[in-house]
């Protein structure tokens, strides 16, 4: 429970806030800066255990463990939150799916040291990412012009460099990228084992071509820019899946007026 008397789990607060911001009819279009600050504030207060992940324990891949031996909480709603997924034994990038609806998704990418998510885009999407533990290197671009098909079905174009091998180490603030700014096309490499809690709005949709992966080629005469061209994923690239064991989410089926979210509390 939080100090302000809010009995919701942190992940529930995140879900409720995402639902308020991203569900259709609530806003439409891009979220406002106040909404982004609100979501970012919630993410900044979250740790791995808040989404059922053990940041520090050893153990085998996918092993569950309990962070508490007390039994008197077993009947409490928070007891489920004490089951933690150990990620220490993961040997490839593993996605822990928390929630997905038409408007947004929530999930955690767990990286073993050295693993890389290839350069990929987030077309028409807003993405908030909180590094829960560990450290990663980020290189990113934004399109200078909207990507066009260059040869056959592949798309590409000129992009501006936003970050080059930038080191992010937890604890750090959540990052935000927008459709045309913030480093919409990025590649992530784990410097140490790490985990990234992602909110994507709208979610990825492979049938709509989201995401695409790219190769990048610097432009020698134009420092700070590169030509990106759509590329196939490396043949051996796979993302594994692991179960979400964090606090149970109460998911609204387009809720009525009973839940009032006061954004001013978080600004
Ligand atoms: Fe991404």
Automatic annotation (TrEMBL):
Top-rank EC class of the record's enzyme: oxidoreductase
Superkingdom of origin organism: Eukaryota
GO molecular function: cysteine dioxygenase activity; metal ion binding
Biased composition (Low complexity): 65-78
Cytoplasm recorded as keyword: no
E.C. numbers: 1.13.11.20
The protein's required cofactors: Fe(2+)
Keywords: Iron, Metal-binding, Oxidoreductase
Region annotated Disordered, chain positions: 54-78
Annotated coiled-coil segments of the chain: none
Ribonucleoprotein among keywords: no
Family annotation (CDD domains): cupin_ADO
Alphabetical list of Pfam families matching this protein: PCO_ADO (PF07847)
GO biological process: detection of hypoxia
Catalysed reactions listed for this entry: L-cysteine + O2 = 3-sulfino-L-alanine + H(+)
PANTHER family: 2-AMINOETHANETHIOL DIOXYGENASE (PTHR22966), CYSTEINE DIOXYGENASE (PTHR22966:SF52)
Family per record: Belongs to the cysteine dioxygenase family.
Protein name: cysteine dioxygenase
